[in-house]
What we know:
- This protein is mainly α.
- It has ten helices and no strands.
- Helix content is 78%, strand content 0%.
- α1 runs antiparallel to α3 and α8 runs parallel beside α10.
- It is globular, with a radius of gyration of 26 Å.
Amino acid sequence: xxxxxxxxxxxxxxxxxxxxxxxxxxxxxxxxxxxxxxxxxxxxxxxxxxxxxxxxxxxxxxxxxxxxxxxxxxxxxxxxxxxxxxxxxxxxxxxxxxxxxxxxxxxxxxxxxxxxxxxxxxxxxxxxxxxxxxxxxxxxxxxxxxxxxxxxxxxxxxxxxxxxxxxxxxxxxxxxxxxxx
Length: 181
């Protein structure tokens, strides 16, 4: 398909005024421009045809980079074609992006869905607690904080998620305190 589109673009360039003269007179300035354009488009066509289709990992990396730059709308645009491939990662990243945009309802929907995909989706739970603490429902934020503290108590610093639990409790607590204060 890309080759067809680029082929039509090359044909249109050759059909441009001076195109016929450029083909018959190799010293014409239009001939040099046409050769340059044809070479450039051919190289681009070959490069594009050789590219692999983007993988789920490439969407995750690009969306995470956009979120790190606080480009929440950009992250959502990157994630759209990725929606069905990795539902947990998509829901988590989309939820964080919506929270960054201040859309509590959409963030809640995406982060809650991420938590339904995996019961141990701790990052989604922390992100939901943080969002609820900052812009959403404080009662929900406090409930999530209580659940995180329960998990932390059960873990007692010995489970694989101990550091992430401690960080999550601190982040949700800070979001609640910032809004209350």
